[in-house]
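Much of our argument rests on the idea that a fold can be written as discrete symbols. In the encoding step, the backbone of a single protein was reduced to a row of integers, each denoting a local shape. We regard such an encoding as a compact summary of how the chain folds. The record that follows shows the chain in one-letter code together with its fold in token form:
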Amino acid sequence: MKQFGLNSPLSASMWVGVGVISIAVCLVGFSSMIPDEEIDGAAGEELANAAAGDKNEAFGVLLTVGGTFMQSVQYAYEEKMLSGESPAPPWLLIGMEGLFGALLCLGLVYPIAGMTEWEDLENTMAQLNDNSSLVTLSAIFCVSVFILNSFSVLITFMLSSVWHAILDNFRPISIWATQLAIYSLTDGAHGEAWKRGSYLQLTGLCVMLLGTAIYNGSISVPGLTGGKSLLATGSSSASPALSRSPLLTKNASPGAEFGTRGSPYSARAQIDNASLGEKLMINVTK
């Protein structure tokens, strides 16, 4: 979407980085297909036939792929809205997405889900009414999603939509690591145990880190252009926030990356040269 929709081409090394990250995502996905323990021939064949004939599972995969495609459109559109001639403030964009998302969910998604018996809104409200813990967890979920969306849009604002998509892939890895820690701390009462597929998940994490480094230019690919660090080359794909860092710039020219537009985070002080001159002359006279 960034390459063709926004007409913002990626370099060859960036495409390699995206490809490596895609491999990492596939590795993590395949890890769920590895059984926790050995299955004999007859049972394994029966399980495979059952999985192959499950139309709901295949339909779920198609919905997931379609959702991912729509997500890519959303990320590209967010970047366009945040970096256009009249850029939208990040939190205004979040609010508008939430507002229209809620309207679409209540006016379109829930009625369709009710007709297909995928979701029962009345039953959901009844369960929330009967269990205060569910209400608390739902409130925590809403706050968590708000924080996640806030940082996600800021990533698009400060970096790009591709970085947003790349860092999104670290969410399931982070959740998996947290589940492992919870399992260990609760003596197996909660969380997820280390399984045979966990080795593949760990491999996927390492490959994802490699792909991210290649995309960023931290690791160069021999024979390909665009392999230098985005920050070192002053690329527009690099984070403006990084180029404002005193540690990196030594305060040489803070805010220079915005040219005459000023920082998007705070308004620059406007100095009236004529008024300033008069004040200086008065001080000298005194």
